[in-house]
Specification:
conserved putative lor/sdh protein from methanococcus maripaludis s2 fold, 4 domains, Elongation Factor Tu (Ef-tu), domain 3, 556 residues, OB fold (Dihydrolipoamide Acetyltransferase, E2P), 6-stranded antiparallel β-sheet
């Protein structure tokens, strides 16, 4: 999509204005702190006062690492799958087999109930089912329709019926793809991740595929159905052209077209033909069962479902591995219909929602990786953007909600505070140097190479370094996280360079008391390269270190 330069310029202007306001606020805050500190210290400061600014050159090595930009936010963990169970009718708690905080497995019974109301409902349903079964036994199956039609719109696939096919013996007559997509299931290397975009080769065709699921080294890849046949061999390749694996194509979402009786006289559709709901697919020589018979069959199926649901109401059974987050009942408790029995939170992972500024939402996409940290648990954890809401909120600054999906975390509980950084761009592996190492001559960036006898960590006083005698390495600068910057050019990993560091100290003497240094303002150099607005004569480097956007530093 072509970018509108006017729109882009407007967004950039907004970003500059917002950064300018942030910078101004920081400057004001720093000034206030200095003034307050000066007022507080003034009574104890004697006449003797001195300050000094020292410039040293520290030796550092060019590193290989990755720098990224991202969008940060905070929120609370929520279980990816959670459920609250309520009493289906007036009931009494018979037995309780778990406690709040227990971890249960799929199929475990949490509690059981007794209920006169459920007993009566079950008896009524079973009586109705018996009546329907008796009616079906004597029902006529005379023909009332000469066509088999499509229950849903889609594309006809795997057409197996022909003229003369006996419907009741054929099973599936054809399939109807309902979403226009196909899937490829194959074993893949561990490097493949969910939401990766891959290339899928089908014969001479190559189409884009998306990894939608991973399980035990097996990936499900979804592609658009370009009239491919079910069962066609296909191969998947990564972005570098490496073979990930091979398999055969299957439909992603579909329905099977079947019949109950009759013989097909004519096939009215072709494979890969699009059909609407109710479209005629097959003409029958011998008709299908009449409407009355089919109605009884539908009643039978509906009653069987109701009976199963009623019987399930006597107990609460975990549908998946879960944590019991609430269990407010005990054996013998009398409950009214709708009262809470328990709440379960699935242990298959978590979600969290973070707010994204309107100026950043354009850089956020579904599938992007995120780094998660918790207040209660040490370490960093992997997540990914699973959903984006494009309905903005906020009175003064509009924001949007990004939902992040997080893998299971040992010891984590729903409701824990979490922070997330969505990775929006990355350098990949690159040569990285401290931001302050980059100098400029006539607007061209360069780096001073350390003397031949230098070692990493060494420091040289300003008067011990003759800059004119040092070699320079011309570089081109790239992405920065405020502390480190990616460079290309005349540098290689391991090269030793000089990094200028200025330290400002202040000494105050009062009687026998000496208070040393001090504020360390260093011309605000310790602020991490804060970008000053043009009106304030800001320097060459920008980016608040540790601000809204972070980066992975070498060795981190």
């Amino acid at each position: 999509m072509e970018t509108n330069p006017n729109t882009f310029a407007a967004v950039q202007q907004k970003k500059r204005q917002r950064r300018r306001m942030r910078a101004i606020c920081v400057v004001i805050a720093v000034v206030l702190v200095v003034v307050i500190a000066a007022v507080l210290l003034l009574p104890v400061i004697a006449a003797d006062e001195a300050s000094s600014s020292v410039l040293t050159y520290q030796v550092s090595a060019v590193s290989e690492g990755e720098i990224h930009t991202g969008v940060s936010g905070s929120g609370m963990l929520a279980a990816r799958n959670a459920a609250t169970y309520t009493a289906p009718a007036d009931a009494v708690v018979a037995e309780v087999y778990a406690r709040t905080g227990d971890r249960v497995s799929a199929g475990d019974t949490i509690l059981t109930l007794t209920s006169d109301a459920l007993d009566e409902e079950l008896e009524t349903l079973e009586t109705e089912l018996e009546e329907v079964n008796n009616s079906l036994a004597g029902a006529s199956q005379e023909a009332s329709s000469l066509y088999i039609t499509a229950a849903r719109a889609g594309v006809v696939k795997q057409l197996s019926a022909t003229a003369g096919t006996v419907v009741e013996d054929a099973g599936t007559l054809c399939l109807i793809s309902t979403d226009g997509r196909m899937r490829l299931v194959l074993e893949v290397p561990e490097t493949v991740k969910k939401y990766d975009v891959v290339s899928v080769a089908v014969g001479e065709d190559a189409v884009e595929g998306l990894v939608t699921g991973l399980s035990d080294g097996t990936a499900t890849i979804v592609i658009e159905d370009n009239s491919f046949a079910v069962g066609t061999a296909a191969a998947a390749y990564d972005a570098d052209g490496g073979l990930l694996g091979t398999g055969t194509l299957a439909l992603n979402e579909y329905i099977a077209v079947t019949g109950t009786a009759g013989r097909i006289g004519d096939v009215l559709v072709e494979e890969n033909q699009s059909v609407s709901r109710g479209a005629r697919l097959f003409l029958l020589e011998e008709g299908a069962p009449n409407a009355a018979y089919l109605s009884l069959r539908e009643q039978q199926a509906d009653l069987l479902d109701q009976i199963a649901e009623c019987r399930a109401g006597y107990s609460v059974v975990a549908e998946a591995d879960a944590l019991v987050t609430s269990l407010p009942v005990a054996a013998g408790d009398e409950l009214a219909a709708g009262e809470t029995l328990c709440s379960l939170a699935g242990t298959d992972g978590y979600t969290m929602s973070v707010s994204v500024d309107e100026l950043d939402i354009g850089a956020v996409e579904i599938g992007q990786e995120a780094t998660i940290t918790l207040d209660a648990i040490e370490g960093t954890f992997a997540g990914r953007v699973a959903n984006l809401s494009y309905e903005g909120s906020g009175s003064y600054v509009t924001s949007y909600t990004a939902t992040i999906e997080i893998d299971p975390i040992d010891g984590a509980l729903p409701g824990m505070s979490a922070s997330a950084e969505i990775i929006t761009a990355t350098t990949g592996q690159a040569s990285i140097v401290p931001v302050d190492a980059v100098q400029y001559a006539d607007g061209e960036p360069f780096v001073y190479l350390a003397p031949a006898d230098a070692s990493v960590g060494a420091a040289y006083a300003e008067d011990a370094v003759d800059l004119s005698s040092l070699s320079r390495a011309a570089v081109e600068t790239g992405m920065s996280d405020g502390s480190y910057i990616a460079v290309t050019g005349e540098l290689a990993a391991g090269d030793l360079i000089l990094v200028p560091v200025r330290t400002t100290t202040a000494t105050y003497e009062s009687d026998d008391t000496q208070m040393m240094g001090g504020f360390g303002m260093g011309g605000m150099g310790s602020m991490g390269g804060m970008e000053m607005p043009a009106d304030f004569g800001g320097g060459d480097r920008g980016g608040m270190a540790g601000g809204d956007r972070g980066g992975e530093r070498p060795g981190a």
